[in-house]
Amino acid sequence: MNAELQEAFGFKAGDVVQVLVETSGLDVDNDELTFPVGALVFIDRIKRLGDRQGVAFTIAIEGKIVNVFDDGDGLPTKTSFEQITTAKDHTERPFTLSDVRDVDTYTHAAFVHREESKGDHEVGDLQDLLREAWGLMTDEQKIDFIFIDEAKAILSAAGTLKD
Q1: 84 with 94: CB under 8 angstroms?
Q2: DSSP code at position 16
Q3: Which residues pair with 70 in a beta bridge?
Q4: What are the pLDDT digits (tens) for 98-152?
């Protein structure tokens, strides 16, 4: 009776949602992690299972653990999540993994933050994001970065690289 579903209860695989219940599970180091209500998750897979399990959502929570929510857990699966929406492209729609993978999501958010705050947050937001992204990069990726034309041009314009 197991069947892969494209969507269930208004949610689709690839949607980024918030959990409405405290959630815990083991990470890759076998440490128990607990996430509060409101933790960000993305829906990886949706299946219809047999018996009392009903619909099962396989989710990745905050990029740290994978968990499965199904009706057999004692809570109605359909009330365990809340849709996150975006108006990034001027239409309200579900926020998806495609948005997460798109750098324009972050540059647009920095622009909007500047516009709405009437301050100069855009540059600071982008600097903060670059620092965080840099921390996720391997040493090899950091070294490769200097060979990107845009990086070389900016470093040259600032006098960091001299001809």
Answers
A1: yes
A2: E
A3: 56
A4: 999 999 999 999 998 888 887 788 999 999 999 999 999 999 999 999 999 999 9
d(CA 117, CA 105): 18
Amino acid found at 19? V
Q: Which residue has the tokens 């798109």?
A: 102
Residue 1: pLDDT band (50, 70, 90) is low
The continuous run of DSSP H or E covering 35 comes out as strand 32-35
3-state DSSP call for residue 36?
A: coil
Q: Which residues contact 110 (CB under 8 A, 6 or more apart)?
A: 121, 122, 123, 125, 126, 129
Q: Answer yes or no: are the C-beta atoms of 79 and 37 closer than 8 Å.
A: no
Tokens of 11: 């949610």
N residues, the chain: 163
Instruction: Round to whole Å and give the CA distance between 26 and 40.
Output: 17
